[in-house]
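User: Show me a protein chain along with its predicted structure.
Assistant: Here is one chain, sequence first, then structure tokens.
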Amino acid sequence: MDREQTKTILRRVNAVFNQPFKDDPKFILDTWHDILKDFEFDTIKTNLDCYIKSGNEFAPKVGQLIKPPKETRDRYVPTVEETKRLLDEQEKIKEQVKNDPKVQEAREKARAEIMKMLGRG
């Protein structure tokens, strides 16, 4: 992140949180930029947006913008291989269920109930 991008982050914080950074803006910019310079602007901006949208009443500390919000960090994203395996398993289950007479019967019973509720059966 360059210095101008850090300034943009600080302006957004000031705009949303009623100017918490009024005192010694050069020092604040220098400090935040020193900490954020190794991070991508889009990542920090996204984390700030999430912080704001989550209803926080106070301005974030710089460290709170480096880590994504807890909900994002805790969300598990499977690998490509895991995704393929899960999709294959789902496909096998669909095939097994498609020809199962009990499933067909339950489906027809549910359909008949819905049609009755709609006044068509």
